[in-house]
Design goal:
The chain is mainly α. The protein is built from one helix and no strands. It is about 100% helix and about 0% strand.
Length: about 100
């Protein structure tokens, strides 16, 4: 009688352990599935961020090129303005001489 009772308790424990193993397996499987979903979402977001960074880098490069061209144009304009100022000074001196020669 004692043996039968112990066998019954032993099989109940085994059944309980099997049920717990099933629940644990289900939880682990669900957890991995959720992790995979989260990982995929993060990879997509990282892809979007990388794309945005690439576009931003292109914009910055384009703006740098534009700024360099504007600086070059400004330098040429400054040079032209300086030459024009010299020309105006020479013409002014010539005009002063002409006017002083007339008097």
């Amino acid at each position: 009688m004692t043996n039968g009772n112990n066998d019954h308790n032993g099989s109940d424990r085994i059944d309980l352990l099997i049920d717990q193993m099933g629940i644990l397996t289900e939880l682990v499987t669900t957890g991995f599935s959720e992790l995979k979903t989260i990982s995929q979402a993060q990879q997509q977001e990282i892809g979007r961020i990388a794309s945005a960074i690439d576009k931003l880098a292109e914009t910055v490069a384009s703006q740098a090129e534009t700024t360099a061209k504007q600086a070059e144009t400004t330098a040429k304009q400054a040079e032209t303005t300086a030459k024009q100022a010299q020309t105006v000074d020479r013409l002014s001196l010539m005009l002063e001489r002409l006017l002083s020669d007339r008097t």
